[in-house]
Amino acid sequence: MSANPHHNVEGDIDFVAESKSEEFQELRRTHRSFVFPMAIFFLVWYFAYVLLADYFHDFMSIKVLGNINMGIFLGLLQFVSTFAITAAYVSFSNKKLDPKATKIRERLENQGADQ
Amino acid sequence: MNNLTILAAAAEKTTVGNPLVNIAIFVAFVGVTLVIVLRASKNNKTAADYYAGGRSFTGTQNGTAIAGDYLSAASFLGIVGAIAINGYDGFLYSIGFLVAWLVALLLVAELLRNTGKFTMADVLSFRLRQRPVRIAAAISTLAVCVFYLLAQMAGAGALVSLLLGIDSRAGQSLVIVIVGALMILYVLIGGMKGTTWVQIIKACLLIAGALIMTIWTLAMFGFNFSELLGKAAEVAGNPEILNPGMQYGKSETSKLDFISLALALVLGTAGLPHVLMRFYTVPTAKEARKSVVWAIWLIGAFYLFTLVLGFGAGALIGPDKIKAAPGGVNSAAPLLAYELGGTLLLGLISAVAFATILAVVAGLTITAAASFAHDVYASVISKGKSTPEKEMKVARRTVLVIGVFAIAGGIGAQGQNVAFLVALAFAVAASANLPTILYSLFWKGFKTRGAVWSMYGGLGSAILLIIFSPVFSGAETSMIPSIDISIFPLANPGIVSIPLAFLLGWLGSITDPGTEDPKKAAEMEVRSLTGVGAEKAVDH
């Protein structure tokens, strides 16, 4: 293993002060403002689908296109929404989260290395 | 070679295709992966090498390995067969298995990578009292791994009868021993690096094989999916096969059972210890995110293939013929492969199915061994005074013990109905692990008592409910049909055990009189989001 300049940085950082800093609170807000609503959305959408498939057979048996019925159509839509949420999260993280997180991390690591 | 001729002779009676071809392709897979494992093992010096592959895999490599770890033989043979026979209801599984990855992506993967080292317990005990939390986390890790492992090993025996035509108990046991011995060899020598490469190769083979079969099947229907569905319904002689309800719509109990299963599937994945451990094999949280993204694409594509293959098997072979074949439901995919590409494609798919079992059991074994050596031995038994060398020695011994146990369990479980074990593993992961993971990552008020209550409560209630369910006793399909202690009507405990574990986590925390270190809580929060002080990749 190589000597890692950042390895024991944590001991020197005042994490309590850092966690209360405006910069960190902003990162925390940004993170939660995306992941919490999105998690609630996909869970509600998934269970709505489960309940439809479980209790509303007639609705799910309606033909949409040829032999493709509502059940298969909505099931495939679950795949589409999963892929879409994944792509949206990646783009959000790259644009909004990573720059903020990197800034704080680099500041803290430099601060630790200076001491 | 003697064994091969015996196997071949036994096979002529019941199987389609040529067992020798199946075996030859599987032996080639074992040969190639063994060479790679041996080469990968040269750099296994530190604990980070052995448990986490030196944290030097890329997001793409790890994502592929995650797919290889996650897509078990059950999800390939099982889902294709379930769709072929139960139609739409088989498809419901794959949706839960896929959507579940969003929990891992949004809420768990990156934060876990930033705060942990080798195991799930590292994260859970970060700011709580080490000893009780680590022990509880290790017990639930071992429980999930053992349930999953037994299901895979028992599945190996069933697969043998199907693909090699070995019906005798001794023959099946021999194959379980071979699979178990290979698994021990891979994990012992290759550690996490070797295991990862086996999983990557297997994932490529499995997904490529499924893709070829999917295109082939669609081509037979002029790439018209609707026509394929129509033919499946016609062959089944039942248009209901395209609609939900054939499996879960039978009664109000079975409907409720399905909700319970859906809950465990969607919340269990992000609590599976062998999945969580894979996030430590990449250098940064950003690579952990890339891993999950790549895994979601691969797993999603694969489940779309199984939809085509399931209805394709229904259309081209027919549910009655599948049910009558040796291996029953599980034979849908191999029979379809034979129908499409004859002996060679069947051989390829059979070998892939074996490779799948091998890769999954290897991943489970290294996870269980790491948890025992790192959480129980190093942190609890020797109270942090152990050296990394000693810890790795313990890990290797644990691999041996678990390997032997898996072989014995696999042989013992032959002919038993153990399909419920996979669902139980998901239910335990969703009840014992996920609530504590989420609480400790997102709720500052979470305390040691909450973690301990939630983990033991989730684990205990899931297992107890299974014991008192028709899965265990009281019905013809039960594990022990001769007695009847079934008082809980559902086969899936999740609907009770998951909310209970969340409740216990909250209740335990607000009643815990102990104060926890606010410094540790702040450190965990800052580290989880920024990655400061996260474990770095090993430089060789």
From TrEMBL, chain A:
InterPro entries: DUF485. It comes from the Bacteria. Pfam families: DUF485 (PF04341). Keywords: Membrane, Transmembrane, Transmembrane helix. The chain crosses the membrane at residues 34-52, 72-92. This is Uncharacterized membrane protein (DUF485 family).
UniProtKB/TrEMBL annotation, chain B:
Belongs to the sodium:solute symporter (SSF) (TC 2.A.21) family. The chain crosses the membrane at residues 20-38, 65-85, 91-112, 133-151, 171-191, 203-223, 258-280, 292-317, 344-373, 394-413, 419-441, 453-473, 485-507. It comes from Glutamicibacter protophormiae. The keyword Cell membrane applies. Keywords: Cell membrane, Membrane, Symport, Transmembrane, Transmembrane helix, Transport. It is a multi-pass membrane protein. This is Cation/acetate symporter. InterPro entries: Na/Glc_symporter_sf (IPR038377), Na/solute_symporter (IPR001734), Sodium:Solute_Symporter (IPR050277). It holds the Pfam family SSF. The keyword Transmembrane applies. NCBIfam families: sss (TIGR00813). It is found in: Cell membrane.
